[in-house]
Every structure is written in structure tokens, then in C-alpha cells.
Inverse folding.
């Protein structure tokens, strides 16, 4: 089961991700006035806003599920993102609007700092508590098709490699990313790439199609919105670079694979209760 404190934490995060989506995706050209730091070019703000939308989808759906087994991977995905973002925030705290003349920008900077200190610590604590009380239900398994397994490991590998590269050496953005990034935005983009890359690898490891339905909706939102981003700001994208076409390929494959999962899972079966200690004893 999901503990009440975990549920409340997810509720808070769902509100924060929705706010970030509206601020970054909808008002991507106004981050100098309404956000914690100025994000340029606006395509980067829109990209981050789309990622927050996917995060919001996965959290809202997780709140409807009472089984920790199905929520665990999405929860870990969000936790990884918040931890990496916290590190990026500390490394580049001088880029935030703490000294801005605009009161809203100053508030946004301090609000961001508080969120990315409190939320990762709270999520890590609740993860430890959830794992200590873990009592998994057993669901009939639906094995992953080989093609889907291959696609997931390919997606996860590309996202992890690019994300790690951007975080460790932001200057590599000129080679691995289809538009310019600053060191701060490179590392925040990397946080989302690593988080979703890890989610794809964990989904491959679990190898159970039925456990992917929750993440598939968020994955679909991510793929669709990130395609919208490059169409919206097509003039900023370096179309002559390999990175631009890899971006399109990965985004399209994310959308296609998530659609396959949603079509393939169908109606959830009834869970099978875990065996009692007496059942586990040998006759």
C-alpha cells in the first residue's frame, strides 16, 4: 500500500509539476520575469515544461493506484530527477533570480530552492519507509515482446548516455543536443533525461507489460509534447546536426512504444495476494 505521507508528498509534487508546465511550456519566453532563472532560448523552457507535464501525468495516475509495486518505479524516477536537479541548483545557484528587481522572479527563485531541498529529502525518507513496509501483490505477468524490450533498452541507453554527458560536461551540448544550452539548463535537462532513461531500463528489467501502463501514459505525454516543442521552435533547432535527428527518432519511438503498451495491457487482472507464512512452509 501507499503510505498517507507518501500520498501527500505526491499530491504536492503534482501541483508543483503542473505549475512548472504552465510557466515553462505556456510562457516559455517570459522566464526572466516569472521563473526562478532566465532560460534562453525559449525552446529549452518549453522542453522542460513538457517534461514537467509528463511528470505531472505520472504522479496524478500514481495517486489513483493503491499498490506500491506499480507506483515504485515512477516514484524512483521522480526521486532521481529531484536529486539531480538539487545538485544542479547548488552548482549554479548564482544564476538564479535571488537578487532580481522583480518580486515575482525573486519569489520564484527562493521557492525553487526550497522545493528542491525539501522534496528530495522527503521523497528519499518515504522511499525507505515504503520499502520497509513493502508487501507486494502478485500480478499475472505479461512478458514484454522482444521488439519492445529492444526499443526500451535502446531508449534508456540513449537517454542515460546523453543525460550523463550533459550533466558531467555541459559543454558537450554542442555535440549531443540539437540547440544551445547553458551549463545550468544542460544539467536540468540532464536530470530529466537520466530519470526517464532509468525508468526505461527498469521497465526492461521488470519485463512485465502490465506494470508499464502507469508509466506509459506519462511516456506518451513526453514523446508527444517534445515533438511539439521542436515543431514550435523549428527555427532554433540545428537540423544539420545528428543530434536533431536522434532527438526526433527517440521522441517518436517513445510515443510509439507507449502507445503499444497502452493498447497491449488491456484490462488489469485481479491481483493475487502474497502467500502467508504458513503457505510457504514445506508439507
Amino acid at each position: 500500500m501507499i503510505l498517507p505521507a507518501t500520498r501527500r508528498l505526491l499530491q504536492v509534487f503534482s501541483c508543483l509539476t503542473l505549475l512548472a508546465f504552465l510557466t515553462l511550456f505556456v510562457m516559455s519566453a517570459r522566464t526572466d520575469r516569472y521563473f526562478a532563472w532566465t532560460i534562453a532560448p525559449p525552446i529549452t523552457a518549453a522542453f522542460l515544461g513538457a517534461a514537467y507535464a509528463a511528470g505531472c501525468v505520472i504522479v496524478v495516475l500514481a495517486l489513483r493506484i493503491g499498490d506500491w509495486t506499480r507506483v515504485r518505479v515512477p516514484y524512483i524516477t521522480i526521486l532521481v530527477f529531484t536529486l539531480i536537479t538539487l545538485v544542479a541548483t547548488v552548482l549554479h545557484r548564482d544564476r538564479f533570480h535571488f537578487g532580481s528587481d522583480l518580486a515575482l522572479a525573486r519569489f520564484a527563485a527562493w521557492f525553487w530552492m526550497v522545493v528542491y531541498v525539501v522534496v528530495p529529502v522527503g521523497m528519499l525518507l518515504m522511499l525507505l519507509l515504503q520499502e520497509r513496509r513493502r508487501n507486494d501483490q502478485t500480478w499475472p505477468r505479461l512478458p514484454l515482446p522482444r521488439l519492445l524490450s529492444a526499443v526500451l533498452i535502446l531508449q534508456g541507453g540513449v537517454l542515460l548516455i546523453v543525460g550523463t554527458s550533459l550533466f558531467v560536461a555541459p559543454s558537450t551540448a554542442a555535440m549531443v543536443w540539437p540547440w544551445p544550452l547553458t551549463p545550468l539548463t544542460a544539467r536540468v535537462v540532464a536530470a530529466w533525461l537520466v530519470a526517464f532513461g532509468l525508468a526505461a531500463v527498469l521497465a526492461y528489467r521488470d519485463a512485465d507489460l502490465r506494470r508499464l501502463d502507469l508509466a506509459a501514459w506519462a511516456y506518451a505525454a513526453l514523446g508527444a509534447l517534445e515533438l511539439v516543442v521542436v515543431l514550435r521552435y523549428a527555427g532554433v533547432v540545428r537540423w544539420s546536426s545528428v543530434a536533431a535527428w536522434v532527438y526526433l527518432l527517440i521522441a517518436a519511438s517513445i510515443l510509439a512504444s507507449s502507445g503499444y503498451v497502452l493498447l497491449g495491457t488491456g484490462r488489469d487482472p485481479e491481483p493475487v495476494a502474497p502467500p502467508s507464512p504458513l503457505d510457504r512452509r514445506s508439507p
Notes: The radius of gyration is 20 Å. Confidence is low (pLDDT under 50) at residues 267-283.
